[in-house]
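Appendix B. Extra example for self-study. Work through it before the problem class; the solution is given directly after the inputs so you can check yourself.
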Amino acid sequence: MASLAAALAVVTPTRMELLKLKQRVNLAQRGHDLLREKMDALIIEFFEILRRIGAARAGALKQLSLAYRALSTCSAIMGTIETLQASKEARRELEVEISTRHVMGIVVPTLEVEKVERSALDRGYSLHTTSSVLDEASREFEKALGLLIKLAELEESGRAIAKELERTKRRVNALEYILIPRLRAALKFISMRLDEMERENFTRLKRIKAMLEAET
Amino acid sequence: MSFKVAVIGDVDTATGFALAGASYVHVHIKKEETFAKLGELLAREDFGLVLITHRIAEELGAEFGWMLRTKKLLPVVLRIPDKTGYMPKVDELYELIKRTVGAKIVVRAEDG
Amino acid sequence: MSVDRVLKFELSKLNVHLPMRRISLKEAMMSARPQVAARDGSTHIFKREELDLLAKIVPEAEWEMLRLPILIALDPKLGRGAARINGEAEVRAINQILEKESAGEELLIYRPEVAVIRRKLPTTTQYLFVPG
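Solution. Structure tokens for the complete assembly:
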């Protein structure tokens, strides 16, 4: 934005300019109020998603630690090498459905899995050479993965909302503390100049009138 | 659209998620190697989610953060604990809240 | 002035997530994939569990009257922290959720209540920004 002084030097204090400025102040004020409503709404959304993230994290992390424990049991009973071998034989084709949702102009991803938990048969490792502890470990990790996928969706959404909230907050503040005060100051200045000019004009007219009357 | 899942972790993390069906797992040994792998995953169009352990993410340092900030929309990257449950001292989410809303407001969350 | 242009742009984006046409609760309940098309071309999907909740609290005779998504109108004229719900069926549904008595075609609710509504009906409600 050009410096206010320079701008004022160029703008002639006319009624026209005053009117245009008034319109700009109104637009800025309306814009500020609306963006502030958006900011308030985003704050509500932000806290709600934080709440959900907190819950999702607790659940996912608990399940993950169960999974690690089951895996360690499996390695202990079946053997580390055998467990590793089984993991190489397992079918590794999990697909996550990802699409985007729009929340108040923000793009957030949705992540969904149709079926993450499988039967021992479906997993792909040989059932003859493996033991049920492997099935346990696999199932616990499948459950964990399902929860983590949901968590990933929530955390990404949280980040997207936070970013938009920050942007909106900056706009609101720029309007409230910089633009609108400057516009109002300019408005006041021009208004005062116009009044001044009118007074000068009025005084001049009075003098002319007095001169004319003196001649008659 | 359907996407694959990748995991970057230690041997146990990789094994566990392979058993769960993750398409690709990388066992972290050397920093440069892991960086390269991560960069590759972030550039690909067929992966939708990358899980990486906190421990490794921390080891990768500031450049990891930069990669996250400059990556495209997908894949989503999620940090998870490894079997030791290690979590960094600085909770990224808490920092995000503080930065976005200001720590004071966190306590009065239900207020207007 | 470029600032004005940025402002106009931001304001034009405010309601772009809203649907071109809302659908009734009846339509949504009967559809296999209840959704609406938004102004920006995206598709907005209603979650089944929210529809089921609404179906439970709204008498079936009113399903045709209730339009989705329910709009939470944010109008600066109402003052900060206040929002408005319009529509008899919509008002009744919202009051049910908030466990309040009510009547009428218009309802004013306040920020904590907005939070409750958004928590219970995240996909079946949307914000509407009312320019002055």
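Self-check: The helical segments of chain A are 4-10, 15-78, 80-89, 120-123, 132-215. If your reasoning did not lead you there, revisit section 3.
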